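SAMPLE LOG
Freezer: B-3
Tube label: C17
Construct: single chain, 482 aa
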Amino acid sequence: MTDNIHTTWPWIGGRPHPTPEAKTEDLTSPWDGELVSRVAMADAATIDAAIASAREAFEANLHVTPAERAVWLRAAADEIEKERDTIADITMRALGKPRRACGVEIGRSIAFPRLCAEELLRMEGDVLPLDALPMGKGRFGFTRHHPHGVIAAFTPFNAPSNLLMQKLAPAIAMGNAVLIKPAFEGIGEALLIAECFTRAGVPDGLVNVVACRRDVTRHLVAHPDIALVTLTGGTAAGNALASAAGAKPFIGELGGNSANIVCADADLEDAAKRIVPSAFEASGQQCISAQRIIVIQSAMDDFLPHFIAAAEALTVGDPTLAETDVGPMVNAANADRVEKMVADAVAAGAKEALPLKRDSAIIHPTILVEPPRDAGVVADEIFGPVAVVIAAEDVDDAIAIANDSTFGLQSSCFTSSLETAFKVSEELHVGSVWINEGSRFRMDTTPFGGVGDSGYGREGVKYAMEELSYTKFTGIRFPGRE
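STRUCTURE (predicted):
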C-alpha cells in the first residue's frame, strides 16, 4: 500500500532538514513494484548546509576523548539493535534482498561499531628514538592519530547498512564528522542509522545524510571543507569522484571480477558448494562475487556437475521468505544489462551449462562455460548472478588467467596443497586471497581493498580507522641538553 508514503528529507545537524522546494524521486521495490518512499534530492545549497553543520560539529568536538567516542559507538550499536527488524525490512523492500541475508547484514552493522570502540583501546602511536642520530640529541618525538575533519562517505545499494557502517563507525571513532551520500536505494537505512547515532548521544552535526545525483556530487567532493572522500562503488564512479575531489585523500573500494581457482587436488564438491553462494547470493551484486571460476582442465568433468547441482539447489524468488537464497536484482534495468551481457557471450561462443532464466527483475543463477576471453562476462564486472567457468592447463596457467584483468580485489583458490596455497598468495595480483573459501567471504576485522581498477586504501576495523585519520609527528627540544 502507498497511502502512508512520506518524503524522506536530508538529515542535517541531528534532525530532518525539510526543503519543500526540493525535487523528489520515487523509490520502488524491484519485487512487487510498490512505492517505498519519495526521496528529496539535495541541491548544492543543501550540500553546503550539511557540510557547514559537519564542520561546526567537528570543531566543537575536537577535544572529545577516545573513551567518550567509544561510549557513543557502543550506544549507537544498542540503538541500531532496537531497530534491526525495521532496517532489515527497509532493505528487503527497497532492494529485494532476501530476508535471511538482510538479517545477516544488520547483525554485522550492529557488531561493527562495537568492534571500533574496542579498537580505540589499541590505537597506539610511536615514541621515536630521535637521539639515535647525533642531530637528535636532547630531543624527543612521538606520533599520534588525528582526525581529518569532514569526511564525505559514498555508500552502495548492495549492503546499505553494513557498507555504510564500514565508513561511519571508524570515522566517528577517530574524531571526524561525516556526510553520508548513500546510493539512492539505500537512503532509508542511512537515515535511520543517522537517527540512531543521534539518539545514542553523538553530537548533532557529526552525522549527516543527503541524497543527490551526479550533478551535485562533484560540488560535494570538491568543497574545500571536505577533507577526505571514501567511496564504495564502481570503478568509473571512483575515477570521476577522485578527479572532482582534487588533491585530497581518496579511498576507493571499487569494482571487481573475482577469480576462484579450483585445483585438481581440491575437494571438488566442497569447492562447488562454497563458490555457488559466492557467485549467486545477493544476486551476484557484490564486488567480490565469484565471477570467473578457473578450473584445472583435469578436474573440469568432475567439478562442473557439482557446480551446476549446487546452483540448481538454490531457492530463487520471493525475498520476504526466510528460505529464499536469490531474490530480484536491484531493478529491471540492471537485469536487462546482465541479460544482454549473457546473450552477447553466448552469441560469441560461450556454452550454457545453466541457461539464463528471467522472471521480471529476477535473474536465476546462470553458468557459462568457456566464453571468449574478451567477452564482457570475462573482462568486465557482471554484477549479477552469472558465473563463467574457464579451463586452465595447470596452476601457473590458472594464475595467469586470474591476473589477466584490470581488477584486483579478492580471489580464492581451492587446493589441498600448502605449496599451492602459498604460491597463489604470492602471485595473485589482488588485495585479498582466500584458500578453500569462496571469494565473497569477508570478515570485518581483516584488511579489505583492492589494487588496479579495484581501488586503493583498506577497510576493516583497524585498517579503516588508520585510513580515516592521519599520523602527526611532534618533536620536542629540551634546551640545554643538545
